[in-house]
Amino acid sequence: MFNFLNKYKRNPITGTCRCCGKCCKNLILINRGKPVRNIEQFNKLKKKKNYHERFRPVFRDAEDNFLYFSCDRLDDENKCSDYQHRPEICREYPNKNMIKYGGRFLEGCGYRIKPAEDFKEILSQEMKKKNYPD
Fold first, then answer.
1. Count of domains forming the chain
2. Which secondary-structure segment (H or E) carries 9?
3. Cβ contacts of 87 within 8 Å, gap of 6 or more
4. Which helix (H) or strand (E) segment is 120 a member of?
5. Greatest extent of the chain over all pairs of C-alpha atoms, in Å
6. Is 50 exceeded by the pLDDT of residue 78?
7. Is the pTM above the cut of 0.90?
8. What percent of the chain has pLDDT over 90?
9. Which residues of 55-91 are buried (b: 16+ CB within 10 A; e: fewer)?
10. Is 46 among the domain residues?
11. CA dist list (Å): 86 to 24, 49, 134
12. Is 42 within a domain?
């Protein structure tokens, strides 16, 4: 159900970056439209795009069933040591795809998802699209 809410501009990501580096330690990598779930998928992804070499698996979330990654380019102050050459995933953070696949903002992050203002209206619109009765 959350996936269809992301399509609406009523659920924008709001806030600003606090330059804390938390996002760089809690990445979800996407391959062929789906989150990377195991080391084999990650190794294939690294072969396709060499910039993925900078990422390291940090933990597997049992509930989400996919891997989280950390970037090895963070310095001692949690700043990117390769900022000018950072990959697209970093340049586009926060990305709605991250949220779509279950990623979340860590406590202290300056970004948030603004909740739907009228959930009933959005649900009704979706049900009509799928020809469900009211």
1. 1
2. none
3. 49, 51, 52, 54
4. helix 119-129
5. 57
6. yes
7. no
8. 19
9. beeeeeeeeeebbbbbbebbeeeeebeeeeebbebbe
10. yes
11. 11, 13, 48
12. yes
